[in-house]
Specification:
483 residues; mainly alpha; MetI-like fold; 2 domains; two-stranded parallel sheet; 75% helix
Length: 483
């Protein structure tokens, strides 16, 4: 957490300031391209860099050939499968969280304060921009640290003992659910602290400026040499976090493309798309009901309930899977005992079914859809519904004719975000899936763990391409200056 937090802070804040402050070569492209690493799950990046950097990988093979080395004892090369390697991979995948939120904060900084700092000979970054952006930076870092704790695929592949991997090993390796639950409580404590920090930072993101001006210092004209240097600085994270893994996946996909692999890919893609679409529709429906209830039927405690319903997104998938297993087991055993007592010859089976998998997905990703839908409903003026109700129309008729058409973009956003998150989810699917049910994520995990990245690269590339959808969507939203 310390390593990833410090690295993403330095990369994210620096990039946000360079993009906001200077007018450099290909800035418009770089500004949105810096978000591209978010399309890659960290475990896929880990597989790619292991293939690229290990002893038999491309980079070390080329170095030995050029320098004339014959064995690893003749030179030193950092070990990618290590704690440092995990920090490196996770940081270059997650820095866009800090970059995006900080960039928005920098662009929202009152022009008058920045101009005042320059007049008084102060550096605008240290004296104004950074202090005002502190709540946003803390919020971004909290999200990064939550994702770091949640990571399973990277730490498992690199054999780095973390809380998440410990829970997995105790559960499946030792079949000790009690010990896994105790370790999950430690992770639970970490998450609660980070969640509280994120909520606190979000509440403090407020400032007022009586006169909103365009800050003339932004898009500052600079020399060609400095422009190229800033471009190169911004381009390096894109190369490391996106382009190198993407090229590795494309290379292996082409080399290992055959009929059998293609048929397997079609089959597991069907499984992934089907379960993701069904669950996304369930999540969007539930989130819509919750958002409508909060907006138009704000019963006592409704706000707290909506916040509590979305807290699952902050927790690692493996903890959600563990809690879901206990809860659904209790429901299953209680129901079967009751049916036996009533002499009804029916046995309810939930463990190992699609129900438990969908239940866990909803618990984990409900917050994503609810945030998008609630934001859309919150922007609609209340007088539109009031006018319809005054004309004697029933509530649900008014909702269908007025609210629903207006929040279609928000519903689409919620559906896309939930769908992509479910496609990429690994630990929940790995632990709770029905027998002989493979998704793109579990397929990639199993082959990569067996050192067969070539066989998994087609599925991994498909996950990456699907992950690009929300990135392009966010870029389009930012360009249109709408939410």
């Amino acid at each position: 957490m310390l390593g990833v937090g410090l690295t993403t802070f330095i990369i994210g804040v620096s990039l946000a300031w360079l993009v906001c402050r200077y007018d450099f070569f290909l800035k418009n492209i770089i500004e949105w391209a810096l978000l591209l690493p978010l399309a890659l799950p960290s475990y896929i990046v880990a597989y790619c860099y292991t293939d690229f950097l290990e002893y038999s990988g491309f980079l070390q093979t080329v170095l030995r050939h050029i320098l004339g080395f014959n064995s690893p004892n003749e030179y030193y090369f950092p070990e990618i499968r290590s704690l440092g390697g995990a920090i490196f991979v996770i940081s270059f995948v997650l820095y866009p969280y800090v970059y995006l939120i900080t960039k928005v904060a920098f662009k929202s900084t009152p022009a008058s304060l920045l101009e005042l700092a320059e007049i008084n000979g102060k550096k605008p970054f240290y004296s104004v921009a950074l202090p005002l952006a502190r709540p946003a930076i803390i919020a971004g870092l909290s999200l990064v640290l939550m994702e770091t704790i949640s990571d399973f695929g990277t730490v498992d592949f690199f054999a780095v003992e973390t809380i998440t991997l410990g829970i997995f090993n105790l559960w499946l390796g030792m079949n000790n659910l009690a010990a896994a639950s105790q370790l999950a409580m430690v992770g639970f404590t970490f998450i609660l602290v980070l969640f509280a920090l994120e909520l606190s930072a979000r509440k403090k993101q407020r400032f007022n400026d009586t006169k909103i001006n365009i800050y003339r210092g932004y898009n500052k004209k600079i020399s060609s040499m400095k422009s190229f240097f800033i471009f190169l600085t911004c381009f390096i994270p894109i190369i490391i976090g996106f382009l190198i893994p993407l090229f590795i996946l494309i290379f292996h996909s082409i080399n290992y493309l055959d009929l059998e692999n293609f048929n397997n890919l079609v089959s597991i893609s069907y499984n992934s798309f089907l379960i993701s679409i069904i669950t996304s529709l369930v999540i969007v429906t539930l989130s819509l009901i919750l958002a409508v209830g909060l907006k138009f039927y704000n019963f006592k405690g409704m706000s707290f309930f909506s916040t509590f319903a979305g807290i699952g997104y902050a927790f690692p998938g493996i903890i959600i899977a563990l809690g879901t297993l206990f809860f659904v087991s209790f429901i299953q055993n209680t129901t079967n005992s009751l049916l036996f007592f009533l002499d009804i010859n029916i046995e309810l089976i939930l463990i190992g079914s699609y129900f438990i998998l969908i239940f866990a997905y909803v618990s984990r990703f409900n917050a994503v859809a609810f945030g998008a839908i609630n934001s859309g409903i919150g922007r609609i003026p209340p007088n539109m519904m009031e006018a319809s109700l005054t004309l004697g129309k029933p509530f649900w008729f008014s909702f269908k004719k007025i609210i629903l058409p207006l929040i279609k973009p928000s519903l689409l956003t919620a559906l896309i975000l939930a769908f992509v998150d479910i496609i990429k989810e690994l630990p929940i699917t790995l632990l709770l899936r029905p027998f002989n049910f493979e998704t793109l994520a579990t397929y990639v995990y199993q082959y990569a763990n067996d050192e067969m990245l070539g066989r998994a690269s087609g599925a991994a590339l498909l996950i990456v391409l699907i992950g690009l959808i929300p990135i392009l969507f966010i870029n389009n939203v930012i360009k249109q200056k709408t939410i």
